[in-house]
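Before surveying the methods themselves, let us examine one representative protein, pairing a chain with its fold in token form.
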Amino acid sequence: MTSPSGPSRRQVLAAAAAAAAAPLVAAAPAHAAGAAGKRTWDLTLLGTSDTHGNVYNWDYYGDAEYDDSKHNDIGVAKLATLINQIRAERRGKATLVLDAGDTIQGTPLATFYAKQEPITSTGEKHPMARAMNIIDYDAVTLGNHEFNYGLPLLDLWIRQLGFPALAANAINAKTGKPAFLPYVIKKVSLGFAAPTLRVGILGLTNPGVAIWDRGNVEGRLRFDDMIATAAKYVPIMRERGADIVLISAHGGDSGTSSYGPELPNENPVALIAQQVPGIDAILFGHAHNEVVERFVTNEKTGEQVLLSEPSKWGQRLTRMDFTLARERGRWTITKKSATMLNTNTVVEDPKVLAAVRAQHAKTVAYVNQVVARATVEMSTVESRYKDTPILDFINHVQAETVTKALAGTQYADLPVLSQASPFSRTAVFPAGDVKIRDVAGLYVFDNTLEAVVLTGAEVRAYLEYSAKYFVTLAPGAPVDPETISDPLVPDYNYDALSGVDYDIDIAKPVGQRITRLVLPGTDTPVADDAQFVVAVNNYRRSGGGNFPGIVKTQVYNEQQEIRQLLIDWAQEKGTIDPADFFQPNWRLVRDGVPVF
């Protein structure tokens, strides 16, 4: 697709060709030892998801080969090696490869070709198109992060792919028709003298796009319920000849949403399997979890639907295996299972590395540019539970930017507060040279800066909501920084505000924790009817995290990327000195006694 008017004629014809006339994938017959001695064949599905711009096994923020505490590896180049190995092992047998989305955002490599040298300006092929075309996927589903850089870039990336991009529930707001290809039906050969197997593949993207990328899609696209969309298309695919139906869905299996009830469910995959008959298996993503094999019983047919999610960043590869038999002129699945492969067991595929080498090298050179010198080391290690200079750096730049922009307007006299979240637990500005990669490691998302007006009462409600991040700890109970936060609340959904002084009492129940909220450097309580301008990122302002009161008309929105504002500020100053911006204004307490 993505023109707002729907898929082009060329794309529709290409998809039809892929569905009806794609080269057949040969499969040698297997002979099962079942009681009836029926002849069986097999099909393997390999699945990836949430690769997030990772091609090389490389940490751009650390300028080193990627490694973590569990020694995971990352990247499409590693996935390619596993996929090639399995294809070689199964030579002559049917193997399909799908991806469940979130592909073109998440690393400095992806950001560079969306922001610094956007493919829409240069015409260069996107590194994720180069890498994935080497693998030769059968289809990819669009994830919510595919929409981060606007529809023109997404449209070009899709056109650069050598395989279909699917999103059945993304609808053109003007025509009411699908904005992307909803599904494909692949013809797969199961061997000599065996009838062709027709595999239906339905793609479902995440409804949260309507919130998280409202600025890019509002008035152009709407995002329908994933369950209802599956219920619509699965019968259509069956009627059009699909012998088996696979879904590639960018949504988790928890059944919950990070936003309010105004949008369809964010993570409905298990509900799709339970409620929609006719589905054989679902590859899913979005939640970044490793779900090796999960079976969900369909409540209407009693059939078991196979689910699997392959973690994130190319760390894992899902393998689903299906045994098929031909009964009464119809294909049936007699057995299905899933396993998970770890990419740290293989080397990177040289063809993928070669295809992206120049772009990778250019990105590495870019992120290693020095932007300023820091007078002392600053770290985010304690930023979740202490007011730290490095988080105040974000808030200072945001508040200063908004203050300057509102000079001479009706909002010029209002105090400016600022919101920042501890996106990373490991980001560091070293004493001495600070590079672009250090700033990018602090602010890992491609958010833009906005501002709205909140009352004192709304500020208190906002802080109360943020304070649910912490577990409840009675006075005197031991405090462990590693377990002080609720594991169900991600770090990016905890906000610290600058511009007011406040205490968070973690001995008290959620909703009653802001025990002190005063004007800076005073004992004067913030009045409920007081007014403040709040600098906030676009994700939060558009409803991400479901924070109260923040979804309202902006008083500032110049589409400035926050990461770039931080870089620009540092370059202009030449020095990053906490004395210029660190103002401790919040703390955790229990009955008024500081926790730390």
In short: The chain has a mean pLDDT of 93. The longest strand covers residues 330-342.
